[in-house]
Backbone:
């Protein structure tokens, strides 16, 4: 899977891009958005609710939330649109799978709210700082999880809606404001400060031609280079505003990994997992072999040294579910008990 990221100055552009993505077959469940809610009107309207409806968001927009009715229209496009507060940024409207990282459900993310969530999604930390700072300064961030076959079309669509050149934007921050990096402890900007920044930035971009951009590219011609670690492959070119990252999810279950594990320590637990299958799924029409990948997956999570310190299944379940669903869409509810049992059994035995 690839993580494709774009920042927009205008929430209208982000909304139009999302409409286009969905119209072109990109699943809503794979699209995330984060936008400032400067005055907190969405938070006040949606307090105590898990998700927003078009009516909910429209009412909040009428109260003066950032983007107004434009953000209201996002409720019909995105999954789970709601309001929360991010340290250093302030109130935001957020939707999509990245929300789990913002609310602490992700495992292994770096500290810092939005910064940590972006790093956990496979974005190099330096670049993640740019995007977190962009949201802090009023930008709208869009991320898309895409397959290799979808990626080029996603990039084409996002590029057509005038995303921010994040490298050039960071040059402005450093040269004109002596910016040295994203600070999750900074005070959020209010609407007056955001408007001052917008005017100053636009004058600088006009003077230095920062808006000039040649969007001609071929995704097949990119040079590949390693990102921050072995789990991230940055394939972005300097002239491309939309960034694409290859993410090898540390929790991703694939046929190669399961094949390697088939002759490893999993065999030591096989009889126990069979017993669990016989007592738990005995009335199922499916065989043990049908459930075996779930037991292997849970065993893998428990033996991965990166998660040695995770002792509570609740801290692992959400990212484990996301990774499982990438390979076995719509099957988590059927197999989650087998995954959890294998994780618990393996952790208990090896501890």
Residues:
């Amino acid at each position: 899977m690839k993580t494709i990221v774009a920042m927009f100055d205008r929430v209208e552009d982000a909304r139009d891009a999302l409409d286009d993505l969905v119209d072109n077959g990109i699943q809503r469940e794979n699209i995330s958005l984060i936008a400032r809610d400067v005055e907190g009107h969405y938070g006040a309207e949606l307090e105590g609710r898990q998700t927003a409806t078009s009516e909910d968001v429209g009412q909040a927009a009428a109260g003066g939330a950032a983007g107004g009715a434009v953000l209201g229209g996002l409720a019909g496009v995105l999954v789970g649109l709601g309001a929360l507060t991010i340290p250093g940024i302030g109130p935001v409207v957020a939707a999509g799978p990245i929300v789990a990282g913002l609310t602490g459900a992700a495992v292994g993310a770096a500290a810092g709210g939005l910064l940590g969530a972006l790093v956990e999604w496979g974005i190099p930390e330096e670049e993640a700082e740019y995007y977190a700072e962009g949201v802090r300064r009023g930008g709208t961030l869009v991320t898309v999880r895409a397959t290799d076959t979808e990626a080029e079309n996603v990039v084409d669509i996002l590029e057509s809606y005038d995303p921010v050149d994040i490298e050039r934007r960071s040059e402005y921050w450093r040269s004109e404001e002596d910016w040295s990096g994203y600070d999750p402890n900074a005070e959020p900007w209010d609407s007056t400060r955001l408007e001052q920044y917008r005017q100053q930035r636009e004058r600088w971009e006009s003077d230095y031609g920062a808006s000039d951009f040649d969007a001609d590219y071929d995704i097949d011609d990119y040079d590949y280079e390693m990102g921050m670690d072995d789990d991230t492959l940055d394939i972005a070119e300097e002239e491309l505003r939309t960034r694409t990252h290859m993410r090898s999810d540390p929790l991703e279950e694939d046929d190669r990994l399961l094949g390697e594990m088939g002759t490893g320590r999993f065999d030591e637990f096989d009889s126990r997992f069979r017993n669990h299958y016989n007592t738990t799924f005995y009335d199922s029409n499916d065989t043990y072999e049908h459930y075996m990948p779930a037991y292997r997956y849970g065993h893998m999570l428990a033996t991965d040294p990166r998660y040695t310190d995770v002792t509570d299944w609740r801290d692992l379940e959400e990212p484990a579910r996301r990774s499982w669903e990438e390979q076995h869409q719509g099957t988590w509810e059927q197999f989650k008990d087998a995954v959890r049992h294998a994780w618990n059994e393996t952790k208990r035995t090896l501890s």
Notes: The chain has 15 helices and eight strands. Residues 46-68, 104-112, 210-238, 248-264 have pLDDT under 50 and may be disordered. Residues 255-350 form one domain. The beta strands are 2-8, 31-36, 82-86, 90-95, 140-146, 225-226, 232-234, 243-247.
